[in-house]
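ABC transporter ATP-binding protein
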Amino acid sequence: MTTLEVRDLSKTFHKLRAVDDVSFTLTPGRTVALVGESGSGKSTVARMIARLVRPTSGEILLTGSDGEPVPRKAYRDHVQMIFQDPFASLNPFHTVEHHLVRPLRLHGRSGTEVPHLLERVSLPPDFAHRRPHELSGGQRQRVAIARALAPGAKVIIADEPVSMLDVSIRLGVLKLIARLQREENLAVLYITHDLATARHFSDEVLVMHRGRIVERGPSDEVLTRPEAPYTQQLAAAAPDPDARFRQGGQP
Ligand code: ADP
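Predicted structure tokens:
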């Protein structure tokens, strides 16, 4: 079982303690939501896990199914990011196929897997020949998700994956990530400022405020009966968390 453990992680930018002693574990088949207002340090946590930012202190340990630490090169394959803006994360001159073939081949897999990858993210096979501008925002995010799956991802870090998409298609993309998590036994970190989707799409929630985790626990419990004053404040400011999911509503 591949697990990713974040242990006592901190990051200081100049004098700002952006992330302060954060610990949690991601395990297969579970989604952990990291919630908090803008500037609370969520993306910095994501970037440290993706190895885009070097921690000031602390550790990030990826352990394989054999119980051994995963080597550095394999870490890059196993831990994949999905970013907020799918347009910025795709090359406008490259076809969907090009975006997928490269990571497949780099990781010793065949380009003939492209139709299967597209099927996994519920896109038709002929989309392989399209370029990003020929896709909707939601379709582009599905391509970005397929690209994350291409090298054999086991851990997905989804940093505000739907906040730049039209409201009407957000639910579809979140449902896709949830299905992949379940069916492919992925460990998912879902970063969001939206408490309603965090509650609906995660098993456990970590509430972050000024770089620290101020409350954690089962999402349904923490987000309906918060104990920390900061979480209570966040929950009170959020719209009715259930309303958007009643009768097929869209988040
Ligand atoms: P969130 O994702 O919750 O909005 P961030 O992790 O992006 O929060 O930012 C946390 C804090 O760290 C903010 O005050 C932000 O300005 C600061 N910060 C993030 N990246 C850098 C950087 N590269 N240099 C200096 N400060 C940064």
